[in-house]
Write a structure and sequence with these properties.
alpha+beta, five-stranded mixed β-barrel, 11 helices, globular
Length: 278
């Protein structure tokens, strides 16, 4: 993965008001990106999760839009008429996080596009979300796009929620299962999770995880104004994320056991009607 590309924002194109963080399509010298802003109410740890989980997904070969760092200057967006957006941009000077904009993509719906997700791919997505404790891949909020007849993973800001309270994260909590995997939109149709575990764990070597974590800039890891005030330096923060992820990946993996049990249980239940899923 290496260093992430970094671009300067040149034009605010349009807000995406589906999420509470008010991301936006932004033009840069590298093209269009969907940018999440450091000045949004969730703070910079959401951006750290975006980079780490998105980076892990790319390491696993999962379809994920290109990641980039997007620099917002003090001059950017001054002509934007919406005062809410103006305020957000004023609080977001510096490094923000972008995903390549997939022009023409549409939101995933299981009943309409479930056949586009092979069972082995579904299993690897379930595995990643269990590993990274991502609660936001449900039928109500799948955080998947369909583009060029393929699903694409987006929006990982809610994952790695242990990092919101590092002081309480001991060895037991690091290795805890993830019961919320039971609500995963792809759990029922996912294939053999044991096979997915073997394949994914083999790809996420210590060096691979270290490479992903090293791509997160200091300004997001240490940002008291944005809620990232646990560590004195970026290196100290990166070491903590690396330790958390490598310890969580060590065998036996409780999150895998929980996911397999949840999959077995879900398959015993009748599928929910569309209205019930919503």
């Amino acid at each position: 993965m290496g260093a992430l590309p970094s671009y300067c924002a040149s034009r605010y194109v349009q807000p995406l008001r589906e999420g509470g963080s008010l991301p936006a399509v932004v033009d840069t010298e590298g093209g269009l990106f969907v940018v999440k802003f450091r000045g949004a109410g969730q703070g910079t740890k959401v951006l750290v999760a975006e980079l780490i989980v998105g980076g892990l997904a790319l390491r696993l070969g999962l379809p994920t839009p290109e990641l980039a760092l997007v620099e917002i200057s003090s001059r950017f967006g001054r002509s934007e008429p919406d005062p809410e957006i103006q305020d957000l941009l004023r609080k977001s000077h510096g490094v923000n996080v972008g995903n390549r904009y997939l022009d023409g993509a549409f939101n995933f719906d299981l009943s309409a596009a479930g056949s586009l997700v092979p069972s082995d791919l579904a299993a690897r997505i379930v595995w990643l979300d269990a590993f990274t404790t991502n609660p936001d891949r449900t039928a109500r909020n799948p955080n998947l796009l369909v583009w060029q007849r393929q699903p694409w993973l987006i929006d990982h800001g809610a994952a790695l929620y242990a990092h919101h309270d590092w002081a309480s994260v001991d060895g037991e909590r690091t290795r805890t299962p993830f019961p919320l995997i039971r609500s995963h939109v792809l759990l029922r149709q996912s294939g053999d999770l044991t096979v997915a575990d073997r394949e994914c764990a083999a790809r996420l070597t210590d060096d691979a995880i270290r490479d992903v974590v090293s791509s997160v800039p200091d300004s997001l890891l240490v940002d008291p104004a944005g809620g990232a005030n646990d560590f004195a330096s970026g290196d100290e923060a990166r070491d903590r994320y690396l330790r958390y992820l490598t310890e969580r990946l060590a065998e036996p993996r409780e999150f895998l056991r929980e996911a397999i049990a949840a999959q077995e249980q879900v398959r015993l239940e009748p599928p929910l009607h569309l209205k019930a899923r919503r």
